[in-house]
Amino acid sequence: MKRSGNRGADSLRPVSIERGIQLNADASVLIKMGNTHVICGLTIEEKVPPFLEGRGQGWITAEYGVLPCATNGRYKRETNGRSGRSSEIQRLIGRSLRMMVDLKTIGERTLRVDCDVLNADGGTRTASITGGALAIRDGLKKLVAQGKLAELPKILPVAAISAGIVDGVPVLDLDYPEDSAAEADANFVMSGDGRWIEIQATAEGEPFQQDEFLQVMALASKGITELLGLWD
Fold it and tell me: Which residues of this UniProt protein bind phosphate (predicted)?
């Protein structure tokens, strides 16, 4: 099969990050994976949700949205609450980012990551996790620099990628045309020490075999290992 950019089945799209893209955020990262571009802006709030008050621990959460001109045809703004898709994605992002630190080490404060999709070409949720994790690390460093944390907590790097089966071939980092045509697609979240945080996999045409899934998972592991290089 021929892929955009003539990349191989096991190749990521071109990846880049830019920090400090939002001047008023406590930390921000613009992550680009091919034509998927996501801004991940961090706000640090000196409070926690009511269910955590007085428990001596913090919270990490996320919101996710797609800007109107990010897709082919205008994407309608979600002004009356999040859609089911957006709610599911932001819960995934929040769960993944909470794996990064022991919440008891960040004090009673909330780290809120807003993930806004500027351009959508597949893999927006996984790009949001990868960029959001980098923003969280930068935000924690800021708390230390401000003297609000005595020391930097132990941080577990986190990154995510999509993979799937297209035209019978396991491929890494699906763009939108590939995702739309895939016989199976999956999203993988992995920690820096090689442990899996979450796996979402769906057959679109017919059920896939276990050996096919293992090939897709191996591709995801390879891709995430490369993305973890952004932490250097």
Answer: 85, 123-125
Helix, strand, or coil (residue 89): helix
pLDDT at residue number 5: 83
DSSP-derived secondary structure letter, 104:
G
Chain segment 31-42, per-residue pLDDT in tens: 999 999 999 999
Q: Which helix (H) or strand (E) holds 220?
A: helix 210-227
Residue ranges in 120-209 assigned as alpha helix (H)? 124-145, 176-181
Q: Which residues contribute to the annotated binding site? A: 85, 123-125
How does pLDDT run across 136-174, given as a tens digit for each residue? Answer: 999 999 999 999 999 999 999 999 999 999 999 999 999
What is the separation, in whole angstroms, between the first and last Cα of the chain?
33
Q: Say if residue 1's pLDDT is above 80.
A: no
Feature table: binding site for phosphate: 85, 123-125
Q: Could you tell me the CA-to-CA distances from 129 to 56, 93, 98, 214 in Å, in that order?
A: 26, 6, 11, 22
CATH topology of domain 15-229: Ribosomal Protein S5; domain 2 (3.30.230)
d(CA 78, CA 220): 31
- Give the orientation angle of helix 84-97 with respect to helix 124-145, to 10 degrees: 40
- Cβ count near 60 (within 10 Å): 24
